[in-house]
Write a structure and sequence with these properties.
This protein has 224 residues and is mainly beta. It is 8% helix and 57% strand. The strands form 2 sheets. An 8-stranded antiparallel barrel has the order 1-2-3-6-7-9-10-11.
């Protein structure tokens, strides 16, 4: 599904570029990016423990426009972002009031893996600067729409017989915010860059879950 969505976005974005009369010479301004990152979830409940590495992947396709003869530029395009939250001791559930909560598990109920996965299709706009020494600097903002979500559990059957193993997936979890807004920064040398993203919106709808938001640190590879 992710490959199909990204391919569709690629075709749409390329079509828009060609429709605007971009010459073959300007195709070199199309920048494909691959980013591996780690989410640090801010304002999580104190009793919820997360794993040290909450890995995520971003695939980006941007068109970069140089501002005259200067070293400054502006870029826009599409991003497919997948992020994860791995918990050590809690599951995402809905209480009797319909509010999303992370319910902590008893030590007597071990589980191997539990994660919340979110996939967004985002529209970024980015302002950049390149030095003669091949250093890159950029500041940007992104608006995204959630196209998929799921939780995945692997461990003992906490719903019944604790001697049995249980694998469970839940799609379309309640109260998750459908969109997200955020700001980001990029600094790097030629193809290799460090990134930082700060979420301006929370994980859940207002009043329907913990007031959590992501701080994402990553490594981005894209053409210089």
């Amino acid at each position: 599904m992710k490959r199909t969505l990204f391919l569709s976005a690629f075709i749409l974005f390329t079509g828009l570029i060609m429709a605007q009369g971009v010459s073959p010479y300007s195709v070199r301004n199309i920048r494909f990016g691959f980013e591996l990152n780690n989410d640090l979830w801010l304002n999580k409940p104190d009793d919820v423990k997360l794993k040290g590495f909450n890995r995520g992947v971003n695939l980006s396709l941007l068109y970069h426009h140089r501002l005259g003869e200067s070293k400054f530029g502006i870029a826009s395009g599409v991003v497919l972002a997948s992020q994860n939250m791995y918990t050590k001791n809690a599951l995402l559930q809905t209480d009797e009031n319909g509010v999303s909560v992370f319910s902590t598990m008893l030590d007597s109920i071990p589980f191997q893996n539990y994660k919340l996965n979110l996939t967004f299709l985002e529209l970024p706009i980015e302002f950049s600067y390149k030095t003669k020494s091949h250093l890159n600097f950029a500041l940007g903002a992104k608006a995204g729409y959630r196209i998929a979500d799921k939780t995945k559990y692997k461990g003992k059957d906490f719903t019944g017989d604790l001697t049995k193993d249980l694998k469970m997936k839940v799609h379309k979890n309640a109260n998750l915010l459908e969109y997200r807004l955020g700001a980001y920064a990029v600094i790097g040398y030629k193809w290799i860059n460090l990134t930082a993203y700060y979420g301006l919106t929370g994980l859940f709808e207002d009043g329907s879950g913990p007031d959590m938001s992501p701080l994402t640190i990553g490594i981005l590879v894209r053409p210089y």
